[in-house]
Each structure stands twice: as structure tokens, then as C-alpha cells.
From TrEMBL:
It comes from Tistrella mobilis (strain KA081020-065). Residues 2-343 form the FAD dependent oxidoreductase domain. The keyword Cell cycle does not apply. This is FAD dependent oxidoreductase. The lineage of its organism: Bacteria, Pseudomonadati, Pseudomonadota, Alphaproteobacteria, Geminicoccales. It holds the Pfam family DAO. The gene is puuB.
């Protein structure tokens, strides 16, 4: 269930392996954050590789390091027209205090063979054309895609492999029956399956008890300028890397289709209503790129990402025949794609390991109040970000 990156890559993998596959989505493929994210293809997890080795083992670290490779290999193999650019990912910093941590992270990935390097202020200025960066590092495994085009390309590939995809299919119940699982839909339709994969991430509802309360659905808001004129295009992100800064409440940006400068960041928990809801992110764009900020804003949009308490994704199998994966914490293009591949391979052959140990479903206390306490936490993080040098 869920026709985002996880569900679609799992469906493609299963269909290619000879399974009979049906994908259902409440709206349509790519409707959620899979189609409305910033298009940044970032390898790794939030934790550094040494930590991943210690807590999960080297296989998990290798999985995390290869997630971007998987995305670009799928695009090449399937011929998906989604503006793929492998210009690298830059983790930039406006804080001197953050640089030792970034250098340690870079060195850990370098020790594992990744094409990475530190960037000093001059290197950051040349690579980004932006103001205020005191340093950072670049991971050349990363890049960008047009996320909705990528999702639709995955959907076409899954269909060609023999999967069926149904849109406007809201699942409202799941129970055992007929030797498997019976899904009930708002339309009154019923579907019986031996295996069910629930991959709804930031749009998770109440279908499975407690699952919704394991993540905080946060709006990631974004803007895109009018196409940059040639002089700015030559200076702003000339190699087309994707960039995110190292603050707790980070901004991220890249050059998008038609040469537009795109910037995103954390928004309110309610859905944006008008241009006023994007003022903070437009102010951030102006601080980094004042010349580009004078251009009209061509687009404003939002998508709901799923944040977890430990900043890690989770895989649950609460009952035989049911697998769930969610909580990509803003790295969903690469991570969700790789998770879908791993789940599909595991369901075809249990000897294929899952990339993370299974975890129990642990709802957050008073989850219904998350807009209040998460907003308070975000504002506290903003204050800490401002106080650091």
C-alpha cells in the first residue's frame, strides 16, 4: 500500500521476481512526498558510518552508502526521463562550530571508499555561489532528480513488469481471512493477499493500530524562482550539486528544471494556505542568494515527510505477512527507493536480509499533540542554531 518510492520499487522488484503484485494508493502514484520533495538524492543515514557500524553492523552501513547508486542505476536501466544530475551533495555550514563534526563524517566515508572531500570557504563560494558559508564537504555519490517524474517512471516500469496499480483506492480495514489478509476499501472493494507491504510514510493513517503515531508528519515547504538569467546561472551552483546546511533546522537547495533556484526547509505542521506561509524560506533564499531572490517566485509547494524520534527509518513486521517501512527523515528519494528494493528481495527470498533489524511499533506518547510539542522543539532548535558560532 502506497505508490511512493518504497511501494513502487518493491512492486517492481516483486513483479520481476514472478510475484503477482497489486499496488493501491489513496490518491495516485507520487502524490505524497515522493512527488513533492526537493529531489535531492543523498546517500547515507543521519548517523555517521562509524556509529552505523557499531550499532547495526557493516552491512547496514554499506546499504546506506549505496542508496544513491541504486537510484541512478534504476534511472539508467529503466530509461526514466526525470532530469537526473549527479553533481554531488554538499553539506554546507554557516557555523565554525560544526566543521570538526563534518570533517569527521567526511573522513569516515572516505575511509570506506566514497568520493568525498572537504571544502574551505573559497571552495564553498566557487561550488555554491552563495553567501555566508564557512566550509562544508561534498559527497560526489549524491545528486538530483525530478521526483514526480522519477515516481511516475517507476510506476510505468512496475506496470510493464506485470504489477497492477490502482489509484483512488483508500484502504480502510485490514484483517486476516481467506488464508491471508483481506483489505477493505472505502469504495467497498475487497482484496486478499498473502503478503502486505504498508509504505505510506508521512501520509500514514489509522489502518494499522499505532503505526501513525510512530512518526511525526512534518511539512517540507519549497519555493522555486523564475528561471535564472544566464549570468546568475553561471555563478549559482554551476556544477548543479544539491546542498543542505548543517543546522538542526536546515535549509536545502539546488538548481531545478528550467534553471530555477529551488530552496526548501521546515514548515508549519498544518498545510500551507498562502504565500505568507513561505516567507521564512524565501528569507533564507534571500540571505544566501540576494540577487536570485529579486526574481519572481515561480512555484511554492509542500510535501509531508515522516520524522522519527531516533532520526532513523524503521521496518516493522507486526504479524506474519505484513511488512511496513517508514521514517525516512528527509532522505526519502534514495533511502525509500533502496528500502523498497530490499523489502521486495526479502519477500521473494527470506535469505535476502533486510537492511535494518526489525523493530516493534512504539507509538509516541500524546501523539495527537505533536503539532504543539514538535513546534516547540523546532523553535528551541532554531534558537540553538542562532546562538552557535
Amino acid at each position: 500500500m502506497g505508490a511512493g518510492f518504497t511501494g513502487l520499487v518493491a512492486a517492481l522488484t516483486l513483479a520481476r521476481g514472478g510475484a503477482s503484485v497489486i499496488v493501491v494508493d489513496t490518491v495516485e502514484p507520487g502524490f505524497g512526498a515522493s512527488g513533492r520533495n526537493g529531489g535531492q538524492v543523498i546517500p547515507g543515514l543521519k548517523d555517521d558510518p562509524d556509529t552505523l557500524d557499531r550499532v547495526f553492523g557493516e552491512a547496514t552501513t554499506a546499504f546506506a552508502g549505496g542508496t544513491a547508486d541504486l537510484v541512478f542505476s534504476l534511472i539508467d536501466e529503466l530509461g526514466i526521463d526525470c532530469d537526473p544530475v549527479r553533481g554531488g551533495w554538499i553539506q554546507a555550514s554557516v557555523k565554525h562550530l560544526h566543521l570538526p563534526r563534518l570533517e569527521s563524517r567526511m573522513a569516515q566515508w572516505r575511509a570506506r571508499g566514497a568520493a568525498v572531500e572537504m571544502l574551505d570557504p573559497a571552495g564553498m563560494a566557487a561550488a555554491t555561489g552563495g553567501r555566508g558559508f564557512v566550509g562544508g564537504w561534498i559527497d560526489r555519490r549524491g545528486g538530483s532528480v525530478h521526483p514526480l517524474a522519477y515516481a511516475r517512471g517507476l510506476a510505468r516500469a512496475a506496470l510493464q513488469a506485470g504489477a497492477e496499480i490502482f489509484r483512488d483506492a483508500e484502504a480502510v480495514s485490514i484483517k486476516r481471512g481467506n488464508g491471508g489478509w483481506v483489505l477493505g476499501f472505502a469504495s467497498g472493494a475487497r482484496l486478499t493477499a498473502d503478503q502486505v507491504v504498508i509504505a505510506t510514510n508521512g501520509y500514514t493513517g489509522r489502518l494499522w493500530p499505532g503505526l501513525k503515531a510512530t512518526v511525526i508528519p512534518a511539512n517540507s515547504i519549497q519555493v522555486a524562482t523564475a528561471p535564472l538569467p544566464d549570468d546568475l546561472r553561471a555563478r549559482i551552483l554551476p556544477g548543479r550539486p544539491v546542498v543542505s546546511d548543517s543546522r538542526r533546522i536546515a535549509n536545502y537547495f539546488r538548481i531545478g528544471p528550467e534553471g530555477r533556484l529551488m530552496m526548501g526547509g521546515r514548515g508549519a505542521f498544518r498545510e500551507p494556505r498562502d504565500a505568507a506561509d513561505y516567507r521564512r524560506i524565501e528569507a533564507a533564499l534571500a540571505s544566501f542568494y540576494p540577487e536570485a531572490a529579486r526574481l519572481p517566485m515561480g512555484f511554492r509547494w509542500a510535501g509531508r515527510v515522516a520524522m522519527t524520534r531516533d532520526h532513523l527509518p524503521h521496518i516493522h513486521q507486526p504479524s506474519a505477512g505484513v511488512t511496513m517501512a517508514l521514517g525516512y527523515n528527509g532522505r526519502g528519494v534514495a533511502l525509500a527507493s533502496a528500502m523498497g528494493r530490499a523489502i521486495g528481495a526479502h519477500l521473494l527470498d527470506g535469505a535476502n536480509p533486510l537492511p535494518l533489524a526489525l523493530s516493534a511499533i512504539k507509538p509516541m506518547p500524546v501523539h495527537g499533540l505533536h503539532p504543539l510539542y514538535a513546534t516547540a522543539m523546532i523553535e528551541a532548535y532554531r534558537v540553538r542554531d542562532m546562538l552557535e558560532r
